[in-house]
Amino acid sequence: MASANQTDAEEHAVSSRREPGSAAAQKLGTRHSILIADDSKVIRNRLVSILESLEGVELRVAVDGLEALSLAKERKPDLLLCDHEMPGLTGIQLLRVLRGTWSRVELPVLMLTSNSATETKVLAFQHGANDYVTKPVEPAELCARVNGQLELRRAILENLAARVQLFEARKYQAVGRLAAGVAHELNNPAQYTSSNLSFLRKSYASMQSVLESTLEWAKGEQHQHPFARRIAEQSRSLRLEEILGEAPMAVEEALDGIRRMANIIAEMKEFAGDPHAAMVELELNQALRNTVEVSRPMWSRVLYVHLDLEAELPSVRGAAHPMKQAFLNVLTNAVEAVASQKREGAGHLTIRTARADGGVEVTFSDDGPGISPQLQAQIFDPFFTTKPLGEGTGQGLFVAYAIIVEQHGGRVRCESQPGQGATFRIWLPLAAARAA
């Protein structure tokens, strides 16, 4: 963290240490990132000395508006303290640029100036400032205003996050009901189609010997008997010998297709499950197989999915419905990451399960573009997305995190380097430990 006796170069150091805490608090900003932008080194040091006394803050400093813009784009702070008059970009100009990307809720801005004129304050508010403090700052007032902005932001995000989780849960329940309905509607025609194909196979087998004997007789007697000649000519015209050879294979392929359809129907029913089911002992391997199978149309053109599941994996205690949703969200993230590369050929995703540290670990390892260290700290935050505006909501990994950590007492982390793919590690406690 920056301090008053650091050089200008040292002032730019960023503390990346993260302290443990509740899942909700971590995702909604227990450790707040504050960016200070002021062209006066004395004032910067003064602000740092005041704010570093606050608990759970991470301070970064910028010497002018341009550097503040660069640091904000590199990693969005939770709060910006911005001087009104700076070289490069003034505080108002910086504010106008930032408001083109982030709203007052997403990036609160506290303006600092020695000009206490009402017109100056009104102008700052008109361009998107959240609050205003005049210099020289009073430590108690500054800390109170900073805490006020951070608490307000956290309260708003907590409310939005709760709404998102409720929306995702309802959406998933709707998908489950749809899957169950489709499975039910397909089940009956699949059953009678299978029964009819089985009947045709048996009937054909009983007639095949008669037809083959008749053709053999017609070939030998076609020069002596007009009826035999007629049968031989019609068999050649209809290519009856080819039909007799290929028909059994066609029936078997149709039966294989029906069996495949029945398997998909069963997977859809299992995936739908009961959205209101209580915590039970879960077989993670089966939950993963089910999730992968049901989502096959989504990933089959983008990825080769390889399952490396430890046999006789111990069970965990959890709710099947949300757990599959979490797995589906992580799988979807891998599909979208690999698809964003626009490369030739499909990518690869390996899903593994294994015993680990008194629990069970599930890993999703893809060969996508990877994630930069700066973004890894934010990927589980609500509404965070690297997709263009309108193409992503930033809910998938956040909801997966909430399900795994908050609902099931597990852990999830990401390991990645740019250009080297990404691995998401999910740890869940064993059923006995979770029950205790």
Plain-language structure description:
There is one protein chain. The protein has helices at 8-11, 23-27, 41-51, 65-74, 91-99, 118-126, 139-221, 226-238, 240-272, 284-294, 296-299, 320-339, 373-376, 396-407, 431-435; strands spanning 32-37, 57-62, 79-83, 109-113, 131-134, 280-282, 303-309, 316-318, 347-356, 359-366, 411-416, 422-429. By secondary structure, it is α/β, with parallel strands linked by helices. It folds into three domains: 8-137, 3-Layer(aba) Sandwich (Rossmann fold), CATH 3.40.50.2300; 171-272; 280-435, 2-Layer Sandwich (Heat Shock Protein 90). Helix 5 (91-99) links the parallel strand 3 (79-83) and strand 4 (109-113). Helix 7 (139-221) packs antiparallel against helix 8 (226-238) and helix 10 packs across helix 12. The chain is elongated, with a radius of gyration of 33 Å. The chain starts with 7 loop residues before the first helix and ends with a helix. Mean pLDDT is 78; it is low at 1-29.
List its salient traits:
about 425 residues; alpha/beta; Rossmann fold; Heat Shock Protein 90; 3 domains; 5-stranded parallel sheet; 5-stranded mixed sheet; 12 strands; elongated; disordered N terminus
At a glance:
With 436 residues, the chain is α/β, with parallel strands linked by helices. It contains 15 helices and twelve strands. Helix 4 (65-74) packs parallel to helix 5 (91-99), helix 7 runs antiparallel to helix 8 and helix 10 (284-294) packs across helix 12 (320-339).
